[in-house]
């Protein structure tokens, strides 16, 4: 039995050029020495840049802009064909002409977060100090750093106040941070399937993923791009582990059960006998084509560090004191990564802060991934909340 | 930042000598060419051996023998100091003089399963055909193969009928298999925190662990012992991922929450900032000292393949048709790996088969690991069930 029978197949690697300044598919906003990014870790990041996509048209009053914040493995390609995978944008079900977030009416901005690998400055970007990729020389970034950078982009786009900030999972953390850091700049906040802080179990799963990457000798202390290697097996294992947490037990059961790849029975080997095994291997392999391993480390760390209450004396309600932002929260019944209890915790804090808030727990067996999938009730709530905000602001 | 700052520390490796024939700490039963082990994969394993421990004294009627079946990472050292770790036996809380399974009254047998690495024949054993360690040349083993080998050991010990067969998790699968394969040889069966078949989610977690091991270049297609290397980082990551599934979200929260290693705050690095991270790293590192990576592959595969109903026309009740064995099942409320629903499924099949069965779901926030921990209600049920069986059989 050879290695190739039993392990992941040929895995192509993330190509750093895709993450560099000349990323051909997105608009790039550059911030020079006059506009450094202040970092929570201390010091500044300069120069830096943000890659972004826009959909629809900004109205004359500049009152119809909606910022979409992406999750761990997402990017700015919200509603256009992804330039690397050739697949539809990750939220094309929700965002587009006539969709719940209607680009015929709203000006929608998708950005790649700082630390990402689709054109915004991240660990795969060139470090001007060394002339090589940053690797782990990039400072650790926080959710607040990501949001601070987004606010600078929104400034540059001439938008004083966003009609809405919308995002799920890590994107939802950014939404909460936006509302806390810039309450006067967010009319409506829509955090989905998220939490005000990352749980011990979630930190634990992230740590497994990081250790899988760092255990890969090809990772080379984070210097793999400079040294021409790629920790693709480690990243693939990290993605496989994470992917299980994005689904529910029942969705895995419904999708795969104990069905075998080969109907003739067990192979009595370590081949991918069960369909769920080959599915997971495929998820791991496909991810490595489009994602940078060090970005994965930075994204997971930012989520682990997120604890909004901690920045406000340990009282989450203080993060939203006297806010005029209106909120809508959504959770999904089978999501065990970001549970309904996590959302309720935020709702209680918003209630305590006197903020206008609505909340829906949506019945779904699709686990955390439900927010990315076809969920009609979720779509209806999104449309209702966004359109009501638009009416309140006077967007025609 | 160096590699050693951010990744698992120095990890000693499992030493194959510990798994070899001359294991100094356990009794060894050898089965020569006249007694080959029939395998579900086809063919036979010969020669082979089983390492085992016994506690207490077999009575004259040979009616007081209890077989303990271990879980994935367990072994025969049920109730004595472990020769490798120096820690108490893994079930010393439950088994010993005066304990719920009272070695003053019962003759208790702990065996290392076939495929294991503590003295029974497994992938780290010498393959007589090659003169090297088996590695992946050992045939894939099933739960039924493990039980078939145990039955041969019990024969050799001169025991016709076991008073009880007891085990949790993978050990519980063996208990169910014993009752199905040898109903006339099991008076009482006590399967704990287990299932009659492995779920898609559990197969998925196992596959992640296997991929982590096989992604480690030191694994070398399973030939690491012959080639003098050791896939310790891969095995460590596999153990970390698995360990999360053995605990509950609430037990992780109670134990660690978001507490930091260093009270002065975040290090803004990839060091183990959170206590849960260093705990997991420690779990990974400690495991590698005592466990063989290929055995981990074989154990997980055996569990994945387990589907007792499939061997009986897809009807689980048929596995227990006309059985005279009495059953007691236990599940724990916060166990999300082997849920109460999994146990109820078995209970329903036993009901349909007309078997005497009792079932208790025990309130605990300790997750799957609860069956190994201090759970007074579980202890009381164990003592009650075992002692009642002894009375029924006439053990004084």
Automatic annotation (TrEMBL), chains A, B:
Entries under SUPFAM superfamilies matching the protein: alpha/beta-Hydrolases
Pfam families linked to this entry: Abhydrolase_1 (PF00561)
Similarity comment: family membership: Belongs to the AB hydrolase superfamily. MetX family.
Species this protein is from: Ancylobacter novellus (strain ATCC 8093 / DSM 506 / JCM 20403 / CCM 1077 / IAM 12100 / NBRC 12443 / NCIMB 10456)
InterPro entries in the record: AB_hydrolase_1, AB_hydrolase_fold, HAT_MetX-like
Name of the molecule in the record: Homoserine O-acetyltransferase
Quaternary structure (record): Homodimer.
Active site positions, chain numbering: 169, 335, 368
Any GO MF annotation of the entry: homoserine O-acetyltransferase activity
Binding site for substrate: 239, 369
EC number: 2.3.1.31
Protein's cellular compartments: Cytoplasm
Chief localization: cytoplasm
Pathway listed: Amino-acid biosynthesis; L-methionine biosynthesis via de novo pathway; O-acetyl-L-homoserine from L-homoserine: step 1/1
Alphabetized NCBIfam families for the sequence: homoserO_Ac_trn (TIGR01392), PRK00175.1 (NF001209)
């Amino acid at each position: 039995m050879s290695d190739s029978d039993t392990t992941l197949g040929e895995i192509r690697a993330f190509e750093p050029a895709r993450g560099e300044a000349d990323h051909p598919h997105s608009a790039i906003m550059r911030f020079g020495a006059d506009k450094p990014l202040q970092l929570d870790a201390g010091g500044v990041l300069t120069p830096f840049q943000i890659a972004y996509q826009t959909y629809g048209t900004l109205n004359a009053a500049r009152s119809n802009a909606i910022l979409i914040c992406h999750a761990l493995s997402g990017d700015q390609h919200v509603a256009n064909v992804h330039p690397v995978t050739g697949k539809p944008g990750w939220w094309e079900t929700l965002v587009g002409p006539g969709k719940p977030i209607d680009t015929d009416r709203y000006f929608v901005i998708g950005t790649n977060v700082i630390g990402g690998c689709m054109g915004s400055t991240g660990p795969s970007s060139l470090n001007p100090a060394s002339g090589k990729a940053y690797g782990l020389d990039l400072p650790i970034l926080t959710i607040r750093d990501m949001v601070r950078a987004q606010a600078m982009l929104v400034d540059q786009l001439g938008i004083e106040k966003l009609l809405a900030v919308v995002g799920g999972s890590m994107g939802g953390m950014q939404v909460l941070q936006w509302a806390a850091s810039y309450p006067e700049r967010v009319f409506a906040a829509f955090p989905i399937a998220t939490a005000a802080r990352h749980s011990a179990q979630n930190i634990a799963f992230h740590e497994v993923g990081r250790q899988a990457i760092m255990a890969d000798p090809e990772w080379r202390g984070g210097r793999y791009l400079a040294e021409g290697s790629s920790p693709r097996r480690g990243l693939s294992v990290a993605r496989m582990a994470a992917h299980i947490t994005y689904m529910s037990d029942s969705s895995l059961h419904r999708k795969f059960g104990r069905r075998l790849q080969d109907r003739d029975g067990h192979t009595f080997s370590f081949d991918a006998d069960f369909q769920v095994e080959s599915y997971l291997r495929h998820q791991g392999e496909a991810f490595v084509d489009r994602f940078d391993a060090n970005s994965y480390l930075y994204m997971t760390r930012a989520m682990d560090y997120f604890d909004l209450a901690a920045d406000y004396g340990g009282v989450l309600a203080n993060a939203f004191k006297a806010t005029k932002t209106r909120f809508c929260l959504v959770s999904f019944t089978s999501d065990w990564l970001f549970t309904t209890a996590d959302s309720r915790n935020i709702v209680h804090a918003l209630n305590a802060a006197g903020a206008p808030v609505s909340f829906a727990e949506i019945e779904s067996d699709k686990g955390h991934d439900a927010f990315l999938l076809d969920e009609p009730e979720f779509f209806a709530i999104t449309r209702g909340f966004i359109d009501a905000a638009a009416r309140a602001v006077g967007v025609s």
